[in-house]
Amino acid sequence: MTATSGPLVRGARNPGSQGALRHLNQERLFEFLLANGPSTQAELARGTGLSTATVSNIVRDMAAKGVVATSPVNSSGRRALLVRLTDTGDIAVGVDFGRRHVRIVLATLGYDVLAEESIVLPLGYDVSESLTAASELLDRMLEAGGFERQSVLAVGVGIPGPIDRRTGTVLQGAILPEWVGVNLRELEDAFRFPVMVDNDANLGALGEVTWGENRGVRNLMFVKIGSGIGAGLILNGQPYYGYLGITGELGHTPVAEHGIICRCGNRGCLETVASTTVMIESLSRGAEKPIGTADIVRHGLARDPATLRIVGDAGSAIGQAIANIANIINPEIVLIGGPLAGLGDALLDPIQHGILQNALPAIGETTTLRMSSLGDRAESLGAAALVIQSSLAGHD
Fold first, then answer.
1. Sheet of 238-239: strands edge to edge?
2. Which of 3, 50, 119, 231 is the most buried (most CB within 10 A)?
3. Is 0.85 topped by the overall pTM?
4. What is the extent of the structural domain holding 81?
């Protein structure tokens, strides 16, 4: 069954009949599940505006027809019924390109992960070669799972750089300059599937509200701290893209008035004082051998004074930048992702301090700050969610 087959096919009907009303309500539940992933009946009622009794009756009918499956869960300390779409045979592919890796996930429309793999890419890799490697990995995953290529709806691709949504082109400012100028057509030629492309931080935010512990949160900021620092925004339940699609460039927020020149041309940007690159350079001075992000995490957890000072200074600056955005959009939750997530409170505490020092008191005190619930999977899962949520529009 496809997303619009069986009992959920759109078509002419008498809008005043009870059957037509029930059909419309089924579609509302189906579309909510498609957009938000597995949800409790209470979440379905809140999200669709239908009464709990109506939701219960429709879920029972949809389960009998095989459209959804249900399972008992605990929600806020109470027993609840989790509802998820059943496997339609369609597959969404999510791909995340990082500085040194590519990760691919295969998922169903019901938000079940079918397969997940990653491979290491060389530093400063050639984009053409990395696309070939990713395409070959996807082909191997499909073959290993016994999945037909025809079952793939599309491939969602996350790239660490600003994307012009008008053309699907990577713009100047990408942390990996090799990607600048790469466009949607090149990606589709490489994967030989329809492709949807987005910034990796945007996809991290989308992944968190559809797959993670923060599923269903309507106002969220996902901050990815790495060689660059980007933020993905979910506002009123929807990803926010602005006019061109260039949003959340947190790393280019000035935080040091007399700081050094940033690669973007401005002075004192957050990226010049708080990126993992800057931390690594500072901690590598005088060291016997260069260190990496894994070393920062390891030394930070071991309470190494120099590491904690570098991380603390960076965290305070990041908190200042987050506070400036929080004062404008008032997020419910701010999540921290990226390779330093393993530091836990050693990174969160200085970020929290920076937020409280610079945000309006009411905003700073009520904004929840925590680490990503998905770790390094957030971006690839978000890329798969991008495909899943677009599948309805593609079938309308």
1. 238-239, 229-235, 220-225, 333-337, 368-371
2. 231
3. no
4. 6-85
